Amino acid sequence: MFRLQGSKVLAVDMTGDAVKAKNGSMVAYDGQMTFKKLSGGGEGLRGMVTRRLTGEQMTVMEVKGQGTCWFADRASEINLVGLRGDTLYVEAGNLLATDAGLRTGTTFTGLRGAAQGNGLFTTTVEGHGQAAITSDGPAVVLRVSPQYPLIVDPGAYVAHQGNVRQSFQSGVTFRTLLGEGGGEAFQIRFEGDGLVYVQPSERNTIAGDL
Amino acid sequence: MSTYGTPGAGPVVHDPMTLPVDDNVNKYTFCVELKGGQWFLQKGKMIAYYGSIDFNGIGHGRLDRLVRTSFHSPLHASDWVVAEGSGKMLLADRAFDVNSYDLDDGNLTIRAGNLLAFQPSLALKQSIVPGFLTLIGTGKFVAASNGPVVFMEPPIRVDPQALVGWADCPSPCHHYDHGYLTGVLGGLRAMTGLGGVSGEEHQFEFAGAGTVLLQSSETLMAEAATGAVPPEPGVPGGGGTAPGGYGPQSSGAPRLPGQLGDLQRRFGL
């Protein structure tokens, strides 16, 4: 059972079950816990090879036991995501913890990842259960529905879930090259049905200032 | 309807219907509604939007008229963009606190790096105080601060790092605690830090009627260029004797919109 203690600490109550969490993110626990590094994020040999090949590195530990375990990551804000059979797409660096029952994997994101500067691949989490993702400042959850597509700055994008198509749109014109661009040269457009998590801060991206 | 974010489960989910109109979504995110209108915003502070909104650099020819009427410091025009269209737009700045302020036929001077966005019914001008911008008129603007903003009444002396801006105060000036700074011992203290410097010997002093805005931390936001002022005698910050520490604005010749921009600054060189 995941719950937030404050906005920057995740408390997980466990009764003999397990969670997967980012390596080294435990800050305290009571009760009996065992921590085991999961090679390849528990995705098996194939997952390990995929992660190595795609550069979407994720070091994960499995925490198992009885009691409460607290997790935190560099005082960043934590957001809980409930999954009911759908898929969460998140950058490996922003994934703090998942229920052990959730499957994680890697997927191709295309140009969006390139514009964010974190590679062409992203991490997927699917199944039934809860996941915790981190963001710089509390994330705003925005709904994408067929009549309301959403456009997001690549630097502020954290994660999305659901049945969403993403396309890349560019506002680069000759003005950008003259140094008179609109400041939002690259954008990701989300269409379909789902949720997008956006943080109130922009990472440095290749096109951050154009 | 969507199956995601059913009430009572997980975080609040926003859609274009539930997003506030020209108000904060949370402490760090501000939502602006555009209905065919325009807003000025600092480059790169938009994090997401619904609807169709265009972002144009201020050098855009079509916007010349707007820039002439409500943007009186054309010399730093390229740090600002105009958002126009219809929809809802979210603004945020490096997870700093964001707040909106209403001016009713008033004036307010603000540190250039703190101002995020403003309505074109306000006129933006460079302040005589280097590194600050003045907004005049009626309308709404959005500013970021490191920690919540506190409003104080003059007479007051404030720490230079905590100052965000001031409204209606006629006389911002420097104040030094001379007991600490004069004499041989005072000089030694100031230079070496031996014998106890409090680090608070220098303040900004405000007198008269008005309001002073302070942030609740002494961490400065990154400076934003306010543009060069004309190099005339008598203009603070103008001419060859520009004080250091104000970045690009002390770099000499004024820059006009449409001119080949500060590419090296854009690329962080």
Automatic annotation (TrEMBL), chain A:
<dbReference type="Pfam" id="PF01987">
    <property type="entry name" value="AIM24"/>
</dbReference>
<dbReference type="InterPro" id="IPR036983">
    <property type="entry name" value="AIM24_sf"/>
</dbReference>
<dbReference type="InterPro" id="IPR002838">
    <property type="entry name" value="AIM24"/>
</dbReference>
<protein>
    <submittedName>
        <fullName>AIM24 family protein</fullName>
    </submittedName>
</protein>
<dbReference type="InterPro" id="IPR016031">
    <property type="entry name" value="Trp_RNA-bd_attenuator-like_dom"/>
</dbReference>
From TrEMBL, chain B:
<dbReference type="InterPro" id="IPR016031">
    <property type="entry name" value="Trp_RNA-bd_attenuator-like_dom"/>
</dbReference>
<dbReference type="Pfam" id="PF01987">
    <property type="entry name" value="AIM24"/>
</dbReference>
<feature type="region of interest" description="Disordered">
    <location>
        <begin position="227"/>
        <end position="261"/>
    </location>
</feature>
<dbReference type="InterPro" id="IPR036983">
    <property type="entry name" value="AIM24_sf"/>
</dbReference>
<dbReference type="InterPro" id="IPR002838">
    <property type="entry name" value="AIM24"/>
</dbReference>
<protein>
    <submittedName>
        <fullName>AIM24 family protein</fullName>
    </submittedName>
</protein>
<feature type="compositionally biased region" description="Gly residues">
    <location>
        <begin position="235"/>
        <end position="247"/>
    </location>
</feature>
